[in-house]
Specification:
heterodimer, A: alpha/beta, eight-stranded mixed sheet, 16% strand, globular, B: alpha+beta, two-stranded antiparallel sheet, 4 helices, 15% strand, Septum site-determining protein MinD (chain A), cell cycle (chain A), ATP-binding (chain A), CobQ/CobB/MinD/ParA_Nub-bd_dom (chain A), MinD_FleN (chain A)
Chain lengths: 269, 92
C-alpha cells in the first residue's frame, strides 16, 4: 500500500516540480516503486523536467474521464525502471479534475506503487486542494523569502484542515523543504536564516537545498538533479531528504517550538 | 534600534523580514478561516467582562489564544496587570 506524498508551497516558482522530480527519482533509485502525478492542469511541466515531454500520449484528465486506462497514461522512466509519471493535461479543462476522479486514480495507484508523489500547482484553488486531498505526507517547499513563507503558512493551515486525514481527525505529516538557500547571504543577514523560517512555520525540517547552478543545468537536460548531477550539493541534500522520509519514525527532526509559535499557535486556514 | 545594529551599519534586512512575518502571520492565523476565531472572540469578550468586574485592565493587555491539537486543545489567557493595580493588592 503506497504512501501518498504531496509536494506543495502556495507560491509559484519556489521549486515544487524540481523537488518532485528529484525526490521521486531518489526514492525510485533506492528501489521503491514510485508514481509521480502532475496536478498542474493547463500548465504541466513535470514531463519537461523529467525529459519525457515527447512521450506524453494520455494524461490525468484522460484517465479521469475514462478515455484511457491508467496503465496507458503512465510514462515509465527510461533511466529508472521503478519510476513512472502521470502527466497533467495541457488543455484548460480543469472542470474535469474532480474530487471523485482523483480519488479513483489514487486508489488505483495505491496498490501498485510504494510512493505516489503529487506535484501541486501554485495557488490554493482546486488543483492545489486536490493534490493535497489524499496525502499522508506533505513536503512544503519554501524559499527564505517573505512571500514564500507567508504562502507556506497558509498551505500548512490547509493541510491541517482541508485534507482527508484532517477530516478524520488525523494529521498529515508535514516537512519543510527549504530551497534556494544561500548560507553566506543568510550569515550576512541579507536573507532569513533556517532557524527563523523554522520558528515561524514551526514544522520539522526535511532538508535544505542550497542555491546551485546544477539545478538549472539538470532542468535544461531533462533530468532530475539527483540523476543529472548526483554528486552536487543539491542532489546530496535531496538524497538525504529521501533517507529521512523513508526512516521517518526513527529520526525525528522536530525542532523545539519557539516562543513565537507557542504564543501564536496555528489555526485552520 | 540597538547598539549592535548601529555598528552593523543597518545593512541587515533579514531581522526586519522576520519581525514583519511574525506580526502578519499571528494576525492571519486568527482571521483566516472563521469558525474557531468566532469562538475566540466570544470567549475574549466574556473573559474581559469578568476581569472588568474586579480589575481595571486595558483591553490590549489581555491576550486570548486557542490552540487546537490532535488530542488536546488549549486556551491561553494572558493578562498583563499594570503595576499600579498589582501594587495595591499584594498577594495574600
Amino acid at each position: 500500500m503506497a504512501k501518498v506524498l504531496v509536494v506543495t508551497s502556495g507560491k509559484g516558482g519556489v521549486g515544487k516540480t524540481t523537488s518532485t522530480a528529484a525526490l521521486g527519482a531518489a526514492l525510485a533509485q533506492s528501489g521503491q516503486k514510485v508514481a509521480m502525478i502532475d496536478f498542474d492542469v493547463g500548465l504541466r511541466n513535470l514531463d519537461l523536467i523529467m525529459g519525457a515531454e515527447r512521450r506524453v500520449v494520455y494524461d490525468l484528465i484522460n484517465v479521469i474521464k475514462g478515455d484511457a486506462k491508467i496503465e496507458q497514461a503512465l510514462i515509465k522512466d527510461k533511466r529508472i525502471e521503478t519510476l513512472s509519471l502521470l502527466p497533467a493535461s495541457q488543455t484548460r479543462d480543469k472542470d474535469n479534475l474532480t474530487d471523485e476522479g482523483v480519488a479513483r486514480v489514487i486508489e488505483g495507484l495505491r496498490e501498485k506503487f510504494d510512493w505516489i508523489i503529487c506535484d501541486s500547482p501554485a495557488g490554493i484553488e482546486r488543483g492545489a486542494t486536490l493534490a493535497m486531498r489524499h496525502a499522508d505526507v506533505a513536503v512544503v517547499v519554501t524559499n527564505p523569502e517573505v512571500s514564500s513563507i507567508r504562502d507556506s503558512d497558509r498551505i500548512i493551515g490547509m493541510l491541517d484542515s482541508k485534507t482527508e486525514k484532517a477530516e478524520k481527525g488525523e494529521q498529515v505529516e508535514k516537512h519543510l523543504l527549504l530551497t534556494r538557500y544561500d548560507a553566506a547571504r543568510a550569515q550576512r543577514g541579507e536573507i532569513l536564516k533556517v532557524e527563523d523560517v523554522l520558528e515561524i512555520l514551526s514544522i520539522p525540517l526535511l532538508a535544505i537545498i542550497p542555491e546551485s547552478t546544477e539545478v538549472l543545468r539538470s532542468s535544461n537536460l531533462g533530468a532530475p538533479v539527483t540523476l543529472g548531477s548526483p554528486n552536487s550539493a543539491p542532489a546530496r541534500a535531496y538524497l538525504e531528504a529521501v533517507r529521512k522520509l523513508q526512516g521517518e519514525t526513527a529520526v525525528e527532526v522536530q525542532k523545539q517550538r519557539g516562543l513565537f509559535s507557542k504564543l501564536f499557535a496555528r489555526r485552520a486556514a | 534600534m540597538s547598539l549592535f545594529n548601529f555598528f552593523k551599519r543597518n545593512t541587515t534586512s533579514a531581522p526586519v523580514a522576520r519581525e514583519r512575518l511574525q506580526v502578519l502571520l499571528a494576525h492571519e492565523r486568527t482571521i483566516v478561516g472563521g469558525g474557531e476565531s468566532d469562538l475566540v472572540a466570544i470567549l475574549r469578550e466574556e473573559i474581559m467582562a469578568v476581569i472588568a468586574k474586579h480589575l481595571a485592565v486595558p483591553q490590549d493587555k489581555v491576550q486570548i489564544k486557542m490552540d487546537r491539537g490532535a488530542s488536546v486543545s488549549t486556551l491561553e489567557v494572558d493578562i498583563e496587570i499594570p503595576a499600579a493595580i498589582a501594587g495595591l493588592r499584594p498577594a495574600a
